Amino acid sequence: MLKRRIIPVLLLRGDRVVKGKQFTDYRDTGNPVMATRVYNAQAADELLFLDIEATVTGRSRLAEILSRVSEEAFMPFAVGGGIRTKAEVRALIAAGADKVVITTGAVERPEVVSEVAETFGSQCVIAGIDVRREGNRYAVYVRSGRVRTELELQDHVRKLDELGAGEILVNSIDQDGMMGGYDLDMLARAVEATNKPVIVCGGAGNFRHLEEGLRAGAHAVACASLFHFGDNNPPRARAYLKNVGFPVKTV
């Protein structure tokens, strides 16, 4: 069985790390360079940086910030926020990124997913999907959760799979920052729609929630509040998951 990954998420606003609830009420949680240094010391599996303002303002400081944090750590980096072209991906890879997360761009310019996969390899492309539950369906949102689309979760997962995405990152806006656990129904629907690895995000508040996400079919569990608030960290999370039977990175 492939090793399961625990991925700390760093949300970037300007040159600071922030965290909110349900994609609103963000508060400052620190400096991305310092946070990277800590996660590097804790041997995190990989880090995920998401610029939450890039699609709204049309500007991104990802490359600049990545060039600084990559001097502090050697774990894999995935970065997202406002990515729409191969040229932007090339610049991010040159700055130290191993993968890119394409979310709004995958809806508004879906061919960018196949363009990046064909040029840099599908392993480089994580297709991000932000959703809200609406009755018995999940609606896809873009632009940091500000704009609702007519897309439904499973149809969008299948399309991104066909376009060549190497992984799918599915994020619940409803559960974001609430620390009550992942939306397991959302996750199950995403897993059912693709054979590609699925990363679940939004809602983890304790290690049991990570276990639940993996048992529901996730290949990796992404979390922010779990590590931002309290004394939890990736080594303790790995130890918990190892004790309940999941293969994790040995440090």
Notes on the protein architecture:
- The chain is α/β, with parallel strands linked by helices and 251 residues long.
- It is 35% helix and 28% strand.
- It contains eleven helices and twelve strands.
- The protein has an eight-stranded parallel barrel, surrounded by seven helices.
- Strand 2 and strand 3 form a beta hairpin.
- The longest helix has 11 residues.
- The protein is globular and about 40 Å long.
- It starts with a strand and ends in an 8-residue tail after the last helix.
- The relative contact order is 0.15.
Element order: H for helix, E for strand: EEEHEHHEHEHHEEEHEHEHEHH
* Strands, total number: 12
Unreliably modeled segments:
none
Biggest beta sheet attributes: 8 strands, parallel, barrel
Q: What form results from the Cα inertia axes? A: globular
Mean pLDDT: 94
Radius of gyration: 16 Å
Strand order of the largest sheet: 1-4-5-6-7-10-11-12
N-to-C terminal Cα separation, in Å?
18 Å
**Structural class by SSE content:** alpha/beta
Percent helix: 25-40%
With helices defined by DSSP (H or I, 4 residues minimum), what is the helix count?
11
Estimate the strand proportion: 25-35%
